[in-house]
Structure formats: structure tokens, C-alpha cells
Design brief:
Blueprint: H1 7-10, E1 28-33, H2 41-54, E2 59-63, H3 71-74, H4 83-87, H5 93-96, E3 98-99, E4 105-107, H6 121-132, E5 140-144, H7 151-159, E6 162-168, H8 171-186, E7 192-200, H9 203-220, E8 224-232, H10 235-242, H11 247-250, H12 255-269, H13 280-289
Parallel strand pairs: 1-5, 1-6, 2-4, 2-5, 6-7, 7-8
Antiparallel strand pairs: 3-4
Helix pairs in contact: 2-12, 6-13, 7-13, 8-9
Bound molecules: adenosine-5'-triphosphate and magnesium ion (MG).
The site of magnesium ion (MG) has 5 residues, from helix 2.
Length: 297
């Protein structure tokens, strides 16, 4: 297993730091991803975002998943404007943000953000400007990404400082988590992955699954995996979702609520935004500027 990597050194970003970010405190960017769909990415992204906000962090939750269960819908929020409108120039990012529990800001998903790397230059510039509008006001950017290894979703995951891979204990989820780690490593040069095991039925299940995943990655990939937590399979999660609420908000004392709180505590202790490859500037530049390596292994 490798020591935590210095990702930016692996893939230097060509563009210089945008002047609008000079002197701004760095934002920590975490992408919540998975191989298989339905393992709880959106649930994790929402609850982690709120749990961080409860730790007095300013959090922007960006919905980059175009699936049916969008973050705004899951929280019972309604919107007519999305990032597509920002890219089209009809409004600014702050204007489309919704306010969620504990004061988190939510940027709703839009089909306009599907293929960032292929956007025309003018729209890429639009993204840079969009983020410049919020850079001063955010400590954490949490990105809910689509499942799988389709390029559209991986672009977000690859651009983030931290990749949080959500996995649950079923063969397809483990195999697909391996696939996503492999592509993020081989095509985007990412080396460090945070593993979160969701819907565990007993405390040992998470560690056993992590070790299973580790045994495969150690054989075939030069990556490091950290187990950052387990979230129990908890009926209060489903109950809260049915009520368009987040479990950390509706039932913070529940098993899942406490597990998300612990996750946020740990995330807050991860090496900070000062580390190489961190910050909103790297995220934005990777998002609009990087192209994946040729060929898929
Ligand atoms: N820890 C948990 N305990 C119980 N149920 C959970 C837990 N985590 C997620 N779920 C349930 O699993 C279902 C899928 O969750 P979610 O929508 O967050 O997954 P997803 O990975 O975002 O899915 P998609 O790939 O479709 O975007 C939801 O019904 C949610 O209530
Ligand atoms: Mg989802």
C-alpha cells in the first residue's frame, strides 16, 4: 500500500491559478462516488454535507448526478434553475443555490453539466466564473456524482481532492467499486481513495469488506485505500428519506445519524486544503482542463 499520495505532482495542472482565487482560503473538495448505483451516494453526500455544516463549516453540496433521485428532490426542495442556466449566462451560481438543513447550500443538477471537459471555452470560462462567485463563502464542496465509470461522472470524481468511494456488501458493489478505482487511477492518475462502507448489518462487516477490496487493489493497482467509516443499515435512513429529510437532521441520535457525525469529524481532520492538489482552483482546472489518458485498461 502506498503512503497518501501527492496527486497534483502526478498530474501537474497546466493552467496557472486563476487570479480570482489568489488569496482566497482554499475550499476542500470531496466527490462521493461508487461503482454500482443505489449504494447510498446521495444519502452519504447529503448527510455528510449537513454533518459538516453542524460542525460550523460552510458547505456547498453540488449535485452532479442526473439520476431520478436528485439531492433537491430528496430534501423536498423545488427549483426551476440549475447549473445549466449559469452556463447559459442567464444567472449566477449564487442565484441558483437552494438552502438546505443546517444552512448548507445546494447547487441542483442539470444536463448542462454532463460533459465538462468537452464544453466550449466560453462555457468553461462560465464554470470558472461560477465558482469564483462562491469561493469566498465555502469551506467544503461536496459533490454527489453519478454511479459507474461513464466519463461524465468520473470527471467530477477525478477533479476532486478527495474521492469517497461508497460501497456496500454485495458482490456487484465490490466489483464495481474496484472498477471505478481502477479507471480513476489508470486514466486520471488518482492514487488515494477513501472507502466508506454503507448499510452494514454488524460492525465487523465494514472491515471485512474493506480488506476484501484491499486484497484485490494491492495485487493489481498502485493505490492506497483508507477505510474512513461504516454506516449501519438503519431503517431511520429510509424513514427520513420518505419524509424528504436527512437522517442527521431528523434523527441525529440514530445509529446512522451518529455514524455520519463521526464521518464528518474524521473528514475535518483529513490533511487540509493547503496540501498539494487541493482547493477549488485545482478542482475547477481539472474539471475543465484535463483530458483522460488515452485507452482504457
Ligand atoms: N445506511 C442506510 N440504511 C438504510 N437505507 C439506506 C442507507 N443508505 C441508503 N439507504 C437507502 O438506499 C436507497 C438508495 O440510496 P441513494 O439514493 O442514496 O443511493 P445512490 O447511490 O445515490 O443511488 P443512485 O446511484 O441511483 O444515485 C435509498 O432508498 C436510501 O434510503
Ligand atoms: Mg444518487
Amino acid at each position: 500500500m502506498l503512503a497518501p499520495s501527492v496527486d497534483a505532482m502526478d498530474h501537474p495542472v497546466e493552467a496557472s491559478t486563476p487570479t480570482w482565487l489568489n488569496g482566497t482560503p482554499s475550499v476542500r473538495v470531496i466527490a462521493v462516488t461508487s461503482g454500482k448505483g443505489g449504494v447510498g451516494k446521495s444519502t452519504v453526500a447529503i448527510n455528510l454535507a449537513i454533518a459538516l455544516a453542524k460542525r460550523h463549516k460552510r458547505v456547498l453540496l453540488m449535485d452532479a448526478d442526473l439520476g431520478l433521485a436528485n439531492v433537491d428532490v430528496m430534501l423536498g426542495l423545488r427549483t426551476s434553475r440549475t447549473i445549466a442556466d449559469v452556463l447559459a449566462g442567464s444567472c449566477t451560481l449564487p442565484e441558483i443555490l437552494l438552502e438546505g438543513p443546517a444552512g448548507i447550500q445546494i447547487a441542483p443538477a442539470a444536463s448542462g453539466i454532463r460533459r465538462m471537459a468537452e464544453l466550449p471555452r466560453s462555457e468553461q470560462a462560465g464554470i470558472v466564473h461560477a465558482f469564483s462567485d462562491v469561493a469566498q463563502d465555502v469551506d467544503w464542496l461536496v459533490v454527489d456524482t453519478p454511479a459507474g465509470i461513464a466519463e461524465a461522472g468520473l470527471g467530477f470524481a477525478a477533479a476532486a481532492q478527495e474521492q469517497l468511494v461508497v460501497v456496500r456488501n454485495e458482490p456487484a458493489s465490490i466489483a464495481d467499486a474496484y472498477a471505478v478505482i481502477k479507471v480513476l487511477h489508470q486514466e486520471y492518475g488518482r492514487r488515494r481513495f477513501r472507502i466508506l462502507v454503507n448499510m452494514v448489518r454488524h460492525p465487523q462487516e465494514g472491515l471485512a469488506l474493506y480488506e476484501k477490496l484491499l486484497s484485490v487493489t494491492e495485487r493489481f493497482l498502485q493505490v492506497s485505500l483508507d477505510l474512513v467509516g461504516t454506516i449501519p443499515d438503519d431503517p431511520t435512513v429510509r424513514q427520513s428519506i420518505q419524509r424528504c429529510r436527512a437522517v442527521v437532521d431528523m434523527n441525529p441520535g440514530s445509529d446512522a445519524g451518529q455514524a455520519f457525525k463521526k464521518l464528518a469529524e474524521r473528514a475535518d481532520k483529513w490533511p487540509g486544503a493547503e496540501s498539494a492538489g487541493a482547493g477549488l482552483e485545482f478542482f475547477v482546472e481539472r474539471l475543465v482542463g484535463r483530458t483522460p489518458k488515452e485507452g482504457r485498461a
